[in-house]
Amino acid sequence: MYHEIEYRVPYADTDQMGVVYYANYLEYFERSRTEMLRSAGLPYSELEKLGFFLPVSEAYCKYHSPARYDDLLTFRSWVGEMKGVRLVIHSEVRRGDEVLVSGHVVLVSVNFDRKVVRMNHKLVEACRAFQWSLESGK
């Protein structure tokens, strides 16, 4: 299953031609995964209280088509992999049925001492709701 939120593009996200800056898509990915974790009941503030953080160790973004000022976009995210210390979250930015940008980030679980640690069981359980299922196709 995947998580979706809608976002209307403000002028501040665009260049003089009204096209969304390429770098904003990585921010959109972050907004999408943050809201996905919040909806799963485990916002970043709770992760910090549990004593660990999820910094991005890798980001991949493929640009397909531009978004423009005042477009209504859908940010879609889902968990692709949860293994040991790694969490891979895939994201898409869509306008209607059209995929504008697709990609993923690799997050690594670290503790307060900045040491890499296995993912907390609460995070693993929360993310299961948005883990990609080949059977359901969602």
Produce a short descriptive summary.
By secondary structure, the protein is of the alpha+beta class. 22% of the residues lie in helices and 37% in strands.
Give an overview of the whole structure.
- The chain is α+β, with helices and mostly antiparallel strands.
- The chain has a single domain, classed as Roll (Thiol Ester Dehydrase, Chain A).
- Helices cover 22% and strands 37% of the residues.
- The chain is built from three helices and seven strands; from the N terminus they run βααββββββα.
- Strands 1-4-5-6-3 form a five-stranded antiparallel β-sheet. Strands 2-7 form a two-stranded antiparallel sheet.
- The protein is elongated and about 45 Å long.
- The mean pLDDT is 91.
